[in-house]
Amino acid sequence: MVAVADGGVTMVAAEPDVRMPCFADVLVAQARLRAHLAPTPLHHAERFGCWLKLESLQRTGSYKVRGALNALLAARERGDRRTVVAASAGNHAQGLAWAAHRLGVQAITVMPKCAPATKIAGVAHWGATVRLHGDSYDETRTFAADLATQNGWRLLPAFDDADVIAGQGTVGLELAPFAPDVVLVPIGGGGLAAGIVLALKSMREGAPANRRVRVVGAQVEGVDAMARALRGDVASREPAITLADGVRVKEAGVLTRRVLADLLDDLVIVREAELRETLVRLALEEHVVAEGAGALALAAGRRVAGRRKCAIVSGGNLDASVLAALLADVRPRPPRRPRRRHREGDDEPALAPASTRLHRTLHPIPAQRTPFEELPA
Amino acid sequence: MVAVADGGVTMVAAEPDVRMPCFADVLVAQARLRAHLAPTPLHHAERFGCWLKLESLQRTGSYKVRGALNALLAARERGDRRTVVAASAGNHAQGLAWAAHRLGVQAITVMPKCAPATKIAGVAHWGATVRLHGDSYDETRTFAADLATQNGWRLLPAFDDADVIAGQGTVGLELAPFAPDVVLVPIGGGGLAAGIVLALKSMREGAPANRRVRVVGAQVEGVDAMARALRGDVASREPAITLADGVRVKEAGVLTRRVLADLLDDLVIVREAELRETLVRLALEEHVVAEGAGALALAAGRRVAGRRKCAIVSGGNLDASVLAALLADVRPRPPRRPRRRHREGDDEPALAPASTRLHRTLHPIPAQRTPFEELPA
Predict the structure, then answer these.
(1) Which residues lie below 8 Å from residue B74, measured CB to CB, with a gap of 6+?
(2) How far apart are CA B18 and CA B3, in angstroms?
(3) Residues of chain A contacting residue B59, judged by C-beta atoms under 8 Å apart
(4) Cα B226–B231–B232 angle (5° rounding)?
(5) Would you give per-residue pLDDT tens digits along chain A (377 residues)?
């Protein structure tokens, strides 16, 4: 119930009276980030029938750098130059480390012991201090909060923070000119999804008249804190083990839940096998390395109809051993054959005799199958 | 010595009197392709200090579709709707299959038996006929030429053709506004490099005043037909076995060699181990899946100084098993640590006592090393 004033920003101590982010915050974030981060590419994944917003090509390999940098820049504007501490499954820590390096701020990150080595190395690369503690994001969060209190550092939440949400929302602003009809977003704590719905669906003045776009969240079976929270079940539950370590949280955010309860259109639950297959197909067919959470929105995409569908590939930080094992184990079904176009050459003579021989050594053309059919056990 | 008239275009029978492509051809190709292919993204590979032109995100996963589509569109303008046959290590076949599907032209492709399964599947996916023959590009080429003669089909060369070179040159036109000072290009037969030097370094009227850009070719040790040809040694020699199957040709093109002899600035030979390490680092650090030839230009990049260096990631079609094996085998040296920025937080108090404990469990920060140092055997 108590709101604590902290360097000019109202921080959340209990549920009510939190500073809710709004569309204007996302616009301000975009103005702040412009000098540091270029927009990421939008790639047409032809065989998936879906566009991909490639945050895997973002600095530090995930969208998280947007929120972290926005929060540090906002703090600098307020004259707050304290050391920043963050708990993170990995990508928030990397984003913070990069932003802190760029702005010359001291950063300490706490990551769960099971964090991928590539994410840990990424943080160390940018000169931030790394501490490994706990087995899930929630344990590391408690520990980071204690460190902050003991040392007078600033605790930067991974998602439940107005500046962080506004920073992630800049992904949505970059999508707006493309005018998608469906945007698919992976949800862990909900920071990215909250930012994107604010950017694309907010009715505030100055917002794009874009209410028609549907924003659909994606979660993994058994790692669905937000889906439960939106149904009113806010009990903390141990999430299932998943390839998508980046979205593995016990509890959805408070701010994010409020925003999403208002503006999110739908939420799709994806099976682990679908996630694995999508990740492998992304690498082999689209030449995009996505981490588990990064493949999640695209995996959800097959359940959602749309003409200009866009899935956020939220990040690409994956351990070499994990990717190698997936490439060896998962044999994706061949994709749907393309629809025949009118053959302008239909009046051409049929293949000459020599071509009869030719057909005997043809590479067998895969039968037409829908992708994502049940994987063999 | 004999030039054979073929549907309005002069074809090469022996060396002289060939139709040389020029800057205007590249401009025309760009106008033709605009309706079909979007420009590919330019990605800043921060840890490499190099920009990447991601043709791995091109339709069919490589730049080859540009040349093939330009050649088919040019043929359509001339009223030539014959079945097209092509020999290809894989990507040219995929590009042709995609273009033929799009324009409703019949396409037959001949690929060497060792072509990656992913490339073969890519061709079949677009409905083209695939024939596996021979062990190298050169053997498949002879076979494809025989097929064309027997059946009255049009033979579409993979690189030694003015329309194909002009199509590939559109990569260079897309780079021009970025004003790179160095462009690194992988060279097999030389089609991509020839197109790019025409686009960026041609002095013809209407060309960008861009003579200052240096275009540097990259070849693999033992797979250096163009390097030898440019030194005057045009003898056909069996190329070494390499990860970069896409550039594995015995003989450089005739047209391409003429263009490159005039306009290419330099040529770097890359060791196989450097190529392997670069490919793995591209996947893990930049989240880009490149095939062997696609990692070649970036591998050459460390030998070339430049402020706005750009390497062409020419393609991303790599077999799952090859990528899995590389990820398991190759352990890249950690990248250079970033340079310290001025720390605005230097006047902050030193870390409080609690943080002393913290330092004991730090993740070890990798020592500063130059990437690409000799790999362990």
Answers:
(1) B9, B32, B163
(2) 7
(3) 46
(4) 95
(5) 333 333 333 344 444 456 899 999 999 999 999 999 999 999 999 989 999 999 999 999 999 999 999 999 999 999 998 999 999 878 999 999 999 999 999 999 999 888 888 888 888 888 899 999 988 777 888 999 999 999 999 999 999 999 999 999 999 999 999 999 999 999 999 999 999 999 999 865 555 555 589 999 999 999 999 999 999 998 888 999 999 999 998 889 999 999 999 999 999 999 999 999 999 999 999 999 999 999 999 999 999 999 999 999 999 999 999 999 999 998 876 655 665 544 433 333 333 333 322 332 233 333 333 333 333 33
Q: List Cβ neighbours of B129 (8 Å cut-off, separation of 6 or more).
A: A355, A358, A359, A362, B107, B108, B109
Cα of B269 to nearest chain A Cα, Å:
26
Residue B237 token pair: 């020699």
Nearest to A242 by CA among A289, A190, A304, A296: A296
Q: What whole-number distance in Å separates Cα of residue B230 and Cα of residue A316?
A: 41
Which residues have C-beta within 8 Å of that of residue A81, sequence separation ≥ 6? A75, A105, B344, B345, B348
Is A132 within 8 Å of B361 when comparing Cβ atoms?
yes
Residue of B nearest to A147 (CA): B354
Angstrom CA distances, A312 to A201, A290, A297, stand at 16, 10, 6
Chain CA centroid to CA B135, Å: 21
Interchain contact, A354 vs B147, CB within 8 Å: yes
B5, burial (CB in 10 Å: exposed 0-12, middle 13-18, buried 19+) = exposed
Interchain contact, A283 vs B290, CB within 8 Å: no
Q: How far is it, in rounded angstroms, from Cα B337 to Cα A123?
A: 11
Contact B288 A57 (CB under 8 A): yes
Distance from CA of A17 to the nearest CA of B (A): 32
Question: pTM for the whole thing?
Answer: 0.84
> Is there a contact between A82 and A9 (Cβ–Cβ < 8 Å)?
no
Backbone phi, psi, residue B339, to 5°: -65, 140
**Distance (Å) from the C-alpha of residue B368 to the closest C-alpha of chain A?**
10
> What single DSSP character describes residue B50?
E
Q: Least CB-CB distance to B327: which of A82, A320, A348?
A: A320
All residues of chain B having their beta carbon less than 8 Å from the beta carbon of residue A123 are: 363
Looking at the partner chain, which of B101, B130, B152 has a beta carbon nearest the beta carbon of A341? Answer: B101
What is the edge-to-edge ordering of all strands in the sheet holding A266-270? A42-45, A50-54, A309-313, A182-186, A214-220, A266-270
Cα of B41 to nearest chain A Cα, Å: 6
Contacts of residue B342, defined as CB under 8 A and 6 or more positions apart, other chains included, come to A104
Cα torsion for B66, B67, B71, B73, to the nearest 10°?
10
- Residue of A101, A130, A317 with shortest CB distance to B363: A130
Give the phi and the psi of residue B8 in degrees, each rounded to 5: 90, -15
Q: How far is A125 from chain B (nearest CA, A)?
A: 6
Q: Which two tokens stand for residue A91?
A: 């990508």
ipTM: 0.83
Nearest to B126 among A102, A323, A338 (CB): A338
- Measured between beta carbons, the chain B residues lying within 8 angstroms of A83 are 345, 348, 351
- Interchain proximity A57–B43, CB inside 8 Å: yes
- Phi first, then psi, for residue A280 (nearest 5°) are -70, -40
- Rg, C-alpha atoms of chain A: 22
C-alpha distance from A113 to closest chain B C-alpha (Å): 11
Are the beta carbons of A288 and B287 separated by less than 8 Å? yes
At A52 the three-state DSSP class reads strand
- Closest Cβ–Cβ partner in A126, A288, A352 for B338: A126
